[in-house]
Amino acid sequence: MSALLAYGSLGGAVTVAALRYGDRPGLTDEAGTLSFTELDLRSNALANAWQAINITHGSTVGILCRNHRGLLDAVFAAAKTGAGILLLNVDFAAAQVREVCAREGVGTLVYDAEFTHLATTVDTVTSRFVAWTGRTSYAPPDRTLESLIAEGDTAPPAPPIRHSPLIVLTSGTTGSPKGARRERLEGFALSGAVLSKVPFRSGEAAYVAPPVFHGLGLLATGLNLALGSTVVTRRHFDARQVLASMASQHCAGLVLVPVMLKRILDLGEDTIARYDLSGLRIILSGGAPLGSTLARRATSVFGDVLYNLYGTTEAACAAIATPADLRAAPSCVGRPPFGTTVKLLDAHARELPRGATGAIHIGASGQFTGYTGGGTGQRVRGLMPTGDVGHFDAAGRLFVDGRDDEMIVSAGENVFPGEVADLLAGHPAVADAAVIGIPDEDFGQALRAFVVRRAGQELTADDVRNYVRTRLARYQVPRSVVFVKTLPRVASGKVLVRKLPAGEL
Asked: Hey, what CATH class is 408-499 in?
């Protein structure tokens, strides 16, 4: 309790874990394994070193890192100093890094050596530190976190005046990413919501594949560390390596985004069967739509261990589908977890009954304080909109029909591109697919499908249209089909709409 009062739920969590679990393995990355005690002492040493150079309350630390110990060192140390924490997307271009750092007032930048060419262009920061060197052709000009930790005092640092705010950037699939700020990190409430549906247990191991700078990776890492479970992670995602690490570490949990799950399944059942995954109890997917096709494939291969988390950066966790939910309704996102309210509202903010489609609104702990650029988004009777529309079935399971800004009206009919993309994902010759709305002279709007063929498969635009025509309504058939080698996706797996080919194709 003293640690939590001194450093808040984020900074205090690592100290609590050290007190409770001590020498139990806390983190396994490419550099080896650290105990919970070592994680706590490392963050103490770094926090004391930073406080000595006035990185404390009022400062903001930007972190441009992949998944490894240095990222966690920086997060925990910044929290213990009271500095704000900004998690930067490693896929940003130099201009985006500069823009976000300037907008968020970043004075200290922590980065991996591979991003030296990005970090050195940010001229608004006063100090930089290298979190991971590795094998790189870059020669970073700044001190490393490891050198500060080696020289620092491991005694608990002086508590800050105020607990650290955390800023997680939205995905920014259609525009510039916003900073979602949380002044109070109600981690226990959010963890309790997840644990009410997903049976993570203390003393196990979980592979966390999504980047920690996204909500799902951050949530899964914090939750498992708090439980005293070993977090296993790597800087880059590789499907075979994930299976090998899970087998060697006897992982009970696997956390990933749908595109990662798809890449593992694409290895084939024979390859997957070579790895000992007998201890696997949980596959938690989130960050992007799972889809019924992928849910069925995963359940067929791994059994009833799949959970689907639906939420947003701003609104936290809205619903979780259990294996039983996904068996009954593979396209659902489940039911609200403990402490969460979900309501569907019409255009006049009236609550809709089961079966009716409306805008999804959430009331839950762990929601963001507001955007760093100003505003909190419109709320209705304390409920926050997710930006999605959906419906409840008769059993109370929630279905996300699509984004309210992606819905198109084609020949007078409401059409959600996501439903068509999910259908195309089940075609045996389709490796990946995305569908968007485009202007159309005849129908006002129409659908355009972007399709990645499976290697060695023949597939024409007419094949795609006929496949949809025999399974969905006439107005859901794409008017145009574009074949591409790959789909541009952000780290969470969502399609980067603005980078899809434009124009009449």
From this structure: alpha beta
